[in-house]
Specification:
This protein is an alpha/beta fold. The chain has 26 helices and 19 strands. The radius of gyration is 32 Å and the shape is globular.
Amino acid sequence: MSEQTIQNNLYSENVKIGEKYICLSLGATTISDLIKSKTIKSYPISNNIKNKKPDVLILDSNREVIVYQEQKIPQKFKSEKDIQKAINQEIYVAKELNAKIFVVSDGDSFIWINPQTGNRILNENEEEILLPVSPKKNAEVLEKLILEISESVNEQNDIILKKEYIDPTDLAIKINGVLKNLTFASSKMALYTFVEVFLFKYLSDIEILKGENSFDYIYRLYGVNGIPQYDDATILGKYSDGAREQMRYLFPEGEDGTTIINGQIFHVEKRGGEYFSPDNTDFVFKQVILEFKQYEKKAGQFKYISKDFKSKLFETFMKNNDEKSEMGQFFTPLKIVQGMVSMVDIKPKMKICDPASGVGKFLLEAIDDNLDNYFKVENGEFQSNISLTGYEKMMSDGDDITVILAKANMLIYCSKLFQNNKDNISKIADKLLNGTFKVFTTALGTLDKIEENSYDLILANPPYYQSKVMSQKAKETGQYKLGGLGVEAIFLEWIMKSLKPGGVANVVLPDGIFSNESNRKLKQFLIKNCFVESIISLPVDTFFNTPKKTYILTIRKKTTAELKSSTIQAYPIFAYLCKSIGETLDVYRFDIDDNDLSNAIEKYNHYRKLDYTEREELKEPFKSYFSEDAHLKLIDVQSFNPDESWIIENWWSDDEKVSLGFEEEVITLSISEYQEILTDTIDIINSFKEELEWLKNK
């Protein structure tokens, strides 16, 4: 049987291998012609290979050669000498085409080779891979194996790496301590320093940053095992001019001028051809690089980052810095974010907005469980079937760190997308990172313009404070008609008007929204245009540097038909009092078992899935399920008069609040009992007075 006959039996025509790859059966077409016809990506090839005719190629969606396969007849594939001859015959072609895998086969046996080393590729148990390349029969297994090999092999490694998800929280804490001791860095700058070096290491480990732009190249310059090749300032200069500039190129600035880094840290200048660091951050940079490398030796490369770390990165620095109030503006506890996200439905094609997005946790947690279905790259073009918008206002000192951290956070969350599409990083970064997060430089920021009827879902923890300037400027736009007290009132009006008919908002608000008489028109508008689905009372100190009493308000905007028919909400409002949220309410935020918030969300999700008519008159088992929880009340919406307070605690009696631990029991004393207590107290004071006189005269 000829080589071509064997090949045709295995592959015949082009065969898809899952969603990621396509297998081309060739044999008569030169590499030069494949490039000219744009069948494969254009490579700078030498004369040695341009007339080569590959038997089988497996390409990814970017037309990049992933597998180069050489087909042999069985008679020339019997001995180890025959196999090695077949390998040597074509391996240099695979290497020049940057193929991750080179396969030689006689149709029965398949030898998988790393073109970079010439060695056979081994699985996680260091056993030779012998899987047949037979996409008609084993496409799913083949796709998985090719992806695993592509993510693992390089010029130094022939073994498939185990997917060990690292959680470098300990490293973050240690780096924070190093920066505090060496530079007295603020929590904000310590966080940003860690993020930049973390991205440098991560992008190097997934081979987006290579060669002289890679982490290992910079690390080796320090001559850790010998004499340093350069002084610290020169090494920092090479990083600044090399890797940092490459990151800026790969992750271009958006229209607001922000990207994942801005060079505010690790300063180096060049004079007379020599680098020097005016603030001695070259030494700090070295210490941070060495700490990262030391961590890698213990835990492994930064290829797979645990979801828990991605979510808690920003909280790590908040918990471990003395200046804990400085970054409160970034901080919505993760348990609140995840809880609020779980209270709403996230679906493809939705338009989701956070008008005060901070570091983007609401938006990122909303999509985290289904990233592969929301974003993909086809034919080199980024495609999304969900719309995310995160607005933030430039900080008063002109610092853009909030949106930079949001974009860096999104890169970490969407790491797999970038890792699998290395030739399209700039396109993805521009459309995904820059397309999602935007910063405003005006006084009103997001509030400059109400986006009427634009969003299916709004998730937010907007700022709440008094500002006559903001209130006046909002009034001057002519868009805000409801008055109200505080910036939070302006945000709530923006949110209600920016929701699409039928859209849902889940928002954290302070008690003033519900209690202040000046918010009467705001509450009237809310009742007229929305259904109040839920109000959940959060404990004081839920938020890091905000001792205010806060609530989660869930509303659904009425549909056009419901507005036309003046539909009135007939089902009750789900109201819940929380004393705990699953973590301590101090600056350290230790996890605890006590979690009223989790109970509230679980019960609300049962409630919201009932039909509206079922909510109006509950039947068993739901009637008992809800009524047995003393923290929960289903309150008639007619009780929510815009002229009166909407503080839901008012619907619980004093005795109920005492039994739940929200208030101390009031003890009533008779006059004689009170007189007795006073007499006892006076006697104790006199006793102390006598002892003090004795000590004085001694």
